Amino acid sequence: MATPDDERSTTTDFVRELVQRDIDGGTYRGRVQTRFPPEPNGYLHIGHAKAITLDFELAREFGGVCKLRFDDTNPDTEEVSFVEGILADLEWLGYDPGQPLYASDYFEQLYDWAELLITDAKAYVDDQSSDTIRAQRGGYGKPGIESPHRDRPVAENLDLLRRMRAGEFADGSHVLRAKIDMQHDNMQLRDPVMYRIRRGHHHRTLDAWVIYPTYDWAHGQSDAIEGTTHSLCTLEFDSHRALYDWFLEQLPLPGDQPRQTEMARLELTHTVTSKRKLAKLVDDGVVDGWDDPRMPTLRGLRRRGYPASAIREFCRFIGVARTNSRHQIELLESFVRTELNRTAQRRMAVLHPLRLQITNWPTDANDNPIVEHFEVTNNPENESDGTRSVAFSGDLFIEHDDFRADPPPKYFRLTPGREVRLRGAYLITCTGYETDHDGNVTTVLATYDPDTKGGSAPDGRKVKSTMHWVSAPHAVPATVALYGRLFTAEVPGEATGDPLDDVDPDSRELLTGCQVEAALADTPPGEVVQFERLGYFANDPRQPMLFHRTVGLRDEWANQQKRNG
């Protein structure tokens, strides 16, 4: 498995400064342990990539360890397939978490601690409806109302909790709440729920439990059990920190109390990372699945051809901030393009084929057209990639847009009477064209200059256009998927409140009947190549000869920076 060990961060930020202060001050005795805690109710997305990069690389930089923990506390939405998918995505991204941990492994300890809080008169069972409890919490500037069950005797609370665990009560009929402060300005501290009754088949504990801990009750305690020192969260958990600390302060922890620190999450233009919204796209058939190349999931980006190294480098570049901001998706694409320009081999492909006949092409003694072979560089950025042999004949495919019978101004490609260069081959001159009964061009006719082999004229004459091509007798058919933005708005949902209102139903164009050079038939599944003049394309891992456009050749991010001065 690839590792990012040679891509160490050389920058600093407030999180790294905090960790360094802890080390200098002897906090945690110089130990650094982070964790990446996904809930297995979906697949990882680009936002998770930032968290993963920070969690794992921060630990490595300070000689510590980062652990993967599945926060699997909701049996209704979690699946083994998501666990397996997250493990695979994490490995693909370049990080090895070792043996994964599970919050469900701590269910017994969490329950024991819940009884301890009850015994200390810091928790109670409430059998009011969820709507009533929600209404009693009040709001900002609105006082909360204490539950009539808040002062139940310890013995009664213990009995009720044990009966909840035993399955005597219906789902949703009882909850366990922490007894903190119903008038606190921080709404998270207004007697939050710790356990709810939920009969669901858990992917690991099966049917052993009918009560499940809430995120806030399980998360910090899991950190403490595992020995986490620095619990890194996104800004939406800022208000949860007080509750995180309160729970930990009430309990006999096995070691040091971890510290929660919040930072900005990764947000991109034209992108939604809500797992609930992404799941709806999948469930409604808007996309083909979690690995649809239009999805911001890691498996979707992988299928589209995004290199893991480019994603890691992008996450390092945007860094760690204290306030949320939205990054241009073109910036991410620029990192992808830079990496692929360095690594991707070049090939020729014609997406909208138009026949081109060289009328003066030579034939052999049996009147069969001669076939020549040209050695073409695989990657001008990497000499060690060598060359490949490409067949050339008098019967070719060119792009439909590379010919105009009646050209517009400043059109420099093939037109009647104009000479152009065929990439790596010859200079040709258009002598005419053929049309069907509707007037559509079906075949372009041209002559070639045999003295221009390789694309250069001995007399030094210049042409204004170089075109790619594919020899028709040697071409291989392919299907190509072109992608626009899945969400048309820079900030999906900004206008209506629902991001799904901005979904573009035509964000994918599937081209059949494309013609590509024969070498593309040997492209390994998942590999990305550059179609010359067209962009970077990834060979689908499952369907042979299906190529997904990863990114185009034009660096839109660089163009934006130029326009912005």
In short:
With 565 residues, the protein is α/β, with parallel strands linked by helices. It has helices at 14-24, 46-61, 80-93, 107-119, 130-136, 154-166, 215-226, 241-250, 275-283, 298-304, 308-318, 329-343, 556-563; strands spanning 33-36, 65-70, 101-102, 123-126, 175-178, 193-197, 211-213, 230-234, 259-263, 267-268, 326-327, 345-347, 349-350, 353-358, 372-377, 387-392, 395-399, 419-422, 427-435, 441-448, 466-467, 470-471, 476-483, 508-516, 528-531, 535-539, 546-551. It has 13 helices and 27 strands.
Can you describe this structure?
The chain is α/β, with parallel strands linked by helices and 565 residues long. It has three domains: 107-215, Glutamyl-tRNA Synthetase, domain 3; 264-348 and 469-565, Orthogonal Bundle (Glutamyl-tRNA Synthetase, domain 2); 354-467, Ribosomal Protein L25, Chain P (Beta Barrel), CATH 2.40.240.10. It has helices at residues 14-24, 46-61, 80-93, 107-119, 130-136, 154-166, 215-226, 241-250, 275-283, 298-304, 308-318, 329-343, 556-563; strands spanning 33-36, 65-70, 101-102, 123-126, 175-178, 193-197, 211-213, 230-234, 259-263, 267-268, 326-327, 345-347, 349-350, 353-358, 372-377, 387-392, 395-399, 419-422, 427-435, 441-448, 466-467, 470-471, 476-483, 508-516, 528-531, 535-539, 546-551. The protein has a seven-stranded mixed beta sheet with strand order 12-25-26-27-23-24-13, with helices on one face. The longest helix is centred in the N-terminal third of the chain and has 16 residues, at 46-61. The two termini are 42 Å apart.
